[in-house]
From TrEMBL:
It comes from the Eukaryota. GO terms for biological process: homophilic cell adhesion via plasma membrane adhesion molecules. One of its GO terms (molecular function) is calcium ion binding. Residues 36-117, 125-193 form the Cadherin domain. This is Cadherin domain-containing protein. Pfam families: Cadherin.
Length: 240
């Protein structure tokens, strides 16, 4: 049985985030998704998130995914300081905290040039051995106006398996994957300068761990000495 001897660790030092002003509609506003991982196994590696803040009337967090939402409008000029706690589900219930600053900026009134992704139709592979926090791909976009850009996953992430860093476009694995449950994802990602939007999609093929067929080979050296060598023939999931 795995010993619960490791605390959760946050993947990213969030520091102070910049988010666009937004008016709350019929849904709460997704502000940010924090992400922690634990190198233990089983329940000792399962993470639960809580928000430790005096702003509980405005912000709340999903205990499973680490998504932070606002129940109220985000108004330009507002600044918030939140503390998130990540705890594992082991008997010792080990915990780690992260401080997150949020600065709300006004949406630009106009922008002459829209942002554009440098690549579209990307395909990446991940395996069941990849851990939450694994960097999958870093998306890049250009903007002739040099406006600040904001990234988001807009479709294909219903299971919340992936997360994207909103200020710099890093797509990370957020939850463990199981090839037998689902073998591929198609994500749609947007980038905006607050006025214009551009979209791309990324295909993610989830593959089983390469597996090894072990065999023993007896290699004769001198007449009175035998060396036993373990040989590993690695194959992909399709057997190649």
């Amino acid at each position: 049985m795995d010993e619960n001897d490791n605390r959760p660790k946050f993947v990213d030092r969030a520091g102070r985030l910049t988010v666009l002003a937004e008016t709350k509609g019929s849904h709460d506003i997704l502000v940010y998704r924090t992400l922690a991982y634990d190198v233990d196994e089983g329940p000792n590696a399962e993470i639960t998130y809580t928000l430790r803040s005096t702003l509980d009337d405005q912000f709340f967090i999903s205990s499973r995914t680490g998504e932070i939402f606002s129940r109220k409008d985000l108004v330009a000029g507002q600044n918030f300081d939140l503390t998130v706690r990540a705890a594992d589900r082991g008997a010792d219930n080990l915990k780690t905290q992260q401080k997150i600053g949020i600065s709300v900026v006004a949406r630009p009134v106009t922008s002459l040039a829209p942002p554009h992704f440098r690549h579209t139709g990307l395909r990446e592979s991940i395996t069941e051995s990849d851990k939450p926090g694994q960097l999958i791909v870093l998306l890049s976009a250009d903007d002739a106006d040099k406006d600040r850009l904001y990234f988001a996953i807009t479709d294909g992430n219903e299971d919340q398996v992936f997360t994207i860093q909103p200020n710099h476009g890093s797509i990370l694995l957020a939850l463990p994957v199981d090839w037998e449950t689902r073998s591929s994802y198609n994500l749609t990602v947007s980038v905006t300068d607050g006025v214009h939007y551009d979209f791309t999609w990324s295909g993610y093929e989830r593959r089983l761990l390469s597996w090894c067929l072990d065999s023993l080979h007896i290699v004769m050296g001198h007449w009175d000495m035998f060396n036993v060598m373990e040989h590993c023939l690695c194959k992909d999931v399709d057997g190649r």
